[in-house]
Amino acid sequence: MDETCSLRDEYQQTIMHALWLCNQAKSVWKSELHFSELYKIAHRSFMDLLDSIFEQGSSFSVTLFSTISWCLWQHKNKLREHQSMWPLQEISRRAKELVLEFFEIHQRPSNPVRCAPFVKWSPLLVGLYKANFDAALFDNNELAGLSVVVRDSSGNIMGALSQKIARPQFVEHAEALVARSAVTLVKELMLFQVCFEGDC
After folding, report:
1. Is residue 29 part of a domain?
2. Based on the domain organization, do 87 and 35 belong to the same domain?
3. Are 39 and 29 a contacting pair, CB within 8 Å?
4. What pLDDT is stored for residue 12 in this prediction?
5. 8-state DSSP, 22
6. DSSP secondary structure string for all residues of 107-128
7. How does pLDDT run across 51-73, given as a tens digit for each residue?
8. Residues 12 and 102 placed together within one structural domain of the fold
9. What CATH code is carried by the domain that includes residue 154?
10. Where does residue 155 fall: left (phi above 0), alpha (psi -120 to 50 degrees), or beta otherwise?
11. For residue 194, is it within any domain?
12. Strands (E), the chain
């Protein structure tokens, strides 16, 4: 089959010609019956043709039409650049295979969503302590802030720390520094049964 278009010089800027009216394009579309029937209608533009496709009311037809159109466009570009491409007579079959694969994948039942177990807050047991720590990097200067607060099971503050340091290169570095400061503060307070909690 001759894969060049004898009228391409006259119609080279027309999408309607390149993807629908060109004899090579027709040979692809007419291999699909539900698209072949559309040649009985005089479409004024490619958008007019698209309206007819959407009126068919089938998502499969719309997807197949889009895929074949894309394949034809690729075919013409690769032909012009002398690149390897699918033969015209295989475009319809291969496009349909792509669409069927797409629908098969997207119609598979998804894995059931596992809901996270409900977590209810509860206070610390008597005799336990919690150390909360966080780090913040400031955009307007080269500083970072470290803060730690230690509370007992009743929420009373046993100790706290807040300091500014030279801004580390990475956020992870700042988080590691504030975690170390939390451990140091707890040791200085002579506390042993401590739960540490940070945002990192």
Report:
1. yes
2. yes
3. yes
4. 45
5. S
6. TSPPPPPPPPPP----PPPTT-
7. 988 888 788 889 999 999 999 98
8. yes
9. 3.30.420.10
10. left
11. yes
12. 129-137, 143-152, 157-166, 194-198
Neighbours of 61 (CB within 10 A): 17
Banded pLDDT at 184 (limits 50, 70, 90): very high
Question: What's the token pair of residue 87?
Answer: 């033969």
Q: Is 159 exposed, middle or buried (0-12, 13-18, 19+ CB in 10 A)?
A: middle
Tokens (6 digits) for 67: 């895929």
State the burial class of residue 146 (Cβ atoms within 10 Å of its Cβ: 0-12, 13-18, 19+): buried
Same domain, 151 and 101: no
Residue 113 falls inside a structural domain:
no
CB within 8 Å of 20: residues ≥ 6 apart: 26, 29, 43, 46, 49
Residues 6+ apart with CB under 8 A from 85: 74, 75, 78, 79
Give the domain extent around 60: 8-106
